[in-house]
Amino acid sequence: MRAPIGDFDAVRPAPQALDLLVAPVADAVRGWSGPVPADELVHVDTEPEWADTATFVEHYGPELLDQSANCVVVAGKRGGGTTLAACVVLSRARVDVNGAVRRQLGARKASFAPMDTATGETGMEYGGITPIGLPGTWPLLVDAAVAGLPWVLVGSGSRRGKLIVPGKVFPELPNAVLIEGLGVE
Asked: Which residue ranges does the record assign to the YbaK/aminoacyl-tRNA synthetase-associated domain (predicted)?
């Protein structure tokens, strides 16, 4: 099997790579009911030390930068409460935490969640967090530019491996909200 984007040696439909996925992502793939068949979610095996975007595109090809997205965990605070959410933006962009995120969450203050919170609450590894398999109550904020791509390379839940997913999947994920300008360059 060839990946729909990029040039990878080990490529499998995600349902055939459950052993390489962390538990919440594997569970989401097993119970998949998204807008495309689960077999269209593709797992590519990659080196964990190359998981960060800049290193990844250096090793796997600069053309992937325009086809990749990052998923980050944010914390919105209002009064004494904190709302955790995930944001998906193109890899070349940064999340508009103090604007779009804060407004969408109705928060007085928003910031990136601490690494321990992000990994502990998602069950995923830092540097591999993906929107597939997030806690079911979390808002998922998706930049419209991500949904507009034919194929998107995102984390797989661990630093080893990535998922390649049709862009149209992202607005259909649980609690997803499509936002123009969530990612700013």
From this structure: 57-166
